[in-house]
UniProtKB/TrEMBL annotation:
UniProt cross-references to Pfam families, sorted A to Z: GerE (PF00196), Response_reg (PF00072)
Any one of the GO BP annotations: phosphorelay signal transduction system
UniProt name for this protein: DNA-binding response regulator
GO MF, one annotated term: DNA binding
Keywords of this entry: DNA-binding, Phosphoprotein, Transcription, Transcription regulation
Superkingdom of origin organism: Bacteria
Residue ranges occupied by any Response regulatory domain in the UniProt entry: 3-119
InterPro entries: CheY-like_superfamily (IPR011006), NreC/VraR/RcsB-like_REC (IPR058245), Sig_transdc_resp-reg_C-effctor (IPR016032), Sig_transdc_resp-reg_receiver (IPR001789), Tscrpt_reg_LuxR_C (IPR000792), WalR-like (IPR039420)
Residues recorded with modification 4-aspartylphosphate: 54
């Protein structure tokens, strides 16, 4: 059973998500929040598997709530809701520990898949969307880049794997690209996350762009 908290300031949006999850086997909605502060309270109280988090909410917004939850409750995953016109918010949410994001007009089947992926400890990184958002934000003038020396602990192969993760490739796709087994690909990804102290693949993507390992490309 995947336990979910829904955080959105629009009651109709929460009702729609709840209806979907209540009619699907394997999901339980354990709480609803209309603002970020309440979302944090519910996460602390129920320790859900996933918090579905809207960004724009009154008072404590979704970004601040995401940072608090991910810092205080490492076992709770955050799946952020967003729209195309808030690219920088998505980037900040990933930096804050979110495990991925969805657009508000996502197909219901995709939402269910996303919740399962995130609850299983993976990051939801759609190559056609996530990479574009991060690249666009990282390319903006004045964006701060950490010292590339932060990657000094990685081997050449681990750097290569990290770059592929930043490209949105799954472990199976990385294995095919490098002609290695999926198990070996998973091991490489796990080692990179351990060495860099990354929570999950989403944060690896952020670090890859921030460090300059992957160069932003305008599409």
């Amino acid at each position: 059973m995947i336990r979910v908290v829904l955080a959105d300031d629009q009651a109709l949006v929460r009702a729609g998500f709840r209806l979907l999850l209540d009619t699907e086997d394997g999901f339980e909605v354990v709480g609803e929040a209309g603002d970020g502060a309440r979302a944090v309270e519910l996460a602390r109280e129920h320790r859900p598997d996933v918090v579905v988090m809207d960004i724009r909410m009154p008072g404590v917004d979704g970004l601040a709530a995401t940072r608090r939850i991910c810092a205080e409750l490492p076992g709770v995953r955050v799946l952020v809701l967003t729209t195309f016109d808030v690219d920088e918010y998505v980037f900040e949410a990933l930096r804050g520990g979110a495990s991925g994001f969805l657009l508000k007009d996502t197909d219901p089947v995709e939402l269910l898949r996303a919740l399962r992926v995130v609850a299983a400890g993976e990051a939801l990184l759609a190559p056609s969307v996530t990479r574009r958002l991060i690249e666009d934000f990282a390319a903006r003038p004045g964006h701060r880049r950490p010292d590339p020396a932060a990657l000094g602990e990685l081997t050449a192969r681990e750097r290569e794997v990290m770059a592929l993760v930043a490209g949105g490739l799954s472990n199976d796709e990385i294995a095919g690209h490098l002609v290695i087994s999926p198990a070996t690909a998973r091991t490489h990804v796990s080692r990179v996350m351990t060495k860099l102290g990354a929570r999950d693949r989403a944060q690896l993507v952020v670090l890859a762009y921030e460090s300059g390992l992957v160069n932003p490309r305008r599409r």
